[in-house]
Amino acid sequence: MKSKVSKTMWLVSALAVMALFLGACGVQLPEQEAADGQQSTAAAGGDLRGKRIALIMEFNTGTFSQQYVQGVEEEVKKFGGTLTKFVADNDKAKMASLVESAVNQHFDAILTDHGDALLEPGLKKAVERGIPVVVFDAAVNVPGATVLSQDDQKMAELTLEQMKKDLNGKGKIVKIWVAGFAPMERRQQSYAKFMEENPGIEEIASFGSAQNPALDTQAKMEAVLKQYPKGEITAVWAAWDEFAKGAARAIQQAGRDEIKVYGIDMSDEDLQMIQDPANPWAASAAVDPTDIGRVQVRYAYQKLHGDEPEANVVLEPVYVHRDSLPDQQISTAELSQYVEGWGQSAQGKKDWMAEYEVSK
């Protein structure tokens, strides 16, 4: 009996050693081949339905953010996934904590909206664990993550050049912006260059806050209007549509129709204001916020499919001026009929994604 047990133990040990040897030489056993086959099928895509997607936002303020979220929701639903949204209420440290939490909850993909370098440790952890990461509008450096951004410098240039044209190169302006946000910092770079090259345009006031931005801007703009009576302000340049809304309301209520507002970003609410001939907001440069959400999701699903998308994706803006719009009120969904390049972006689409569009 003892001899049989010894022989059996010897045979088991020999088989184990053989398996280790074959594995080291790159030879696969049948069980390993089956497991690797399943893994390679998953890497190549397979059925991507049922994925859990986390969207982590620094803030969810204003109609731009609402339409962006709408785009994310629509595209995740198209792929048959489920979306969970987390909002940090303008608290960057809280946002970083939410990213860590999403990693620990084993979401299949993580999307972020705004934020800064505080997100990097959590995003790196996600990448290391094989969780696809797609960042929007944040200056982060995380190898393996895809970062989406609008061409913020171009948007600033488009609005500043139109303002210069309307002012004939001379005038006194108010700038509304706030530091600490990657897109606004990039827009500020174009603004600084523009002001240096156009000495005939003078900045007489500058302010901005990300907390209740439209209401805060309206209150501060009202104070500036009292400080500078009619004829002393020519235009307002706003680095964010929430700022433009607040400034336009203050100017319109004060009856200061000599002042024009030039903004960045676009939502349905913004478009209504720009279309109103009595409103001082004359123009804006923007990317369709709903499209931004859709494109971000597509890149996440590319990664889930096993594709290797580019690390940096730039979304091209368009310029929307009141003169190009119809008399009747329209929404951003109809804007493509009047402004070339608006909406319905195919950016990030792959041929294999057609399967999910048909089965929607």
TrEMBL record:
Pfam families: Peripla_BP_4. Belongs to the bacterial solute-binding protein 2 family. SUPFAM superfamilies: Periplasmic binding protein-like I. This is Sugar ABC transporter substrate-binding protein. Keywords: Signal. Residues 53-307 form the Periplasmic binding protein domain. InterPro entries: Bact_Solute-Bind_Prot2, Peripla_BP_I, SBP_2_dom. It is found in: Cell envelope. Residues 1-24 form the signal peptide. Its main location: other.
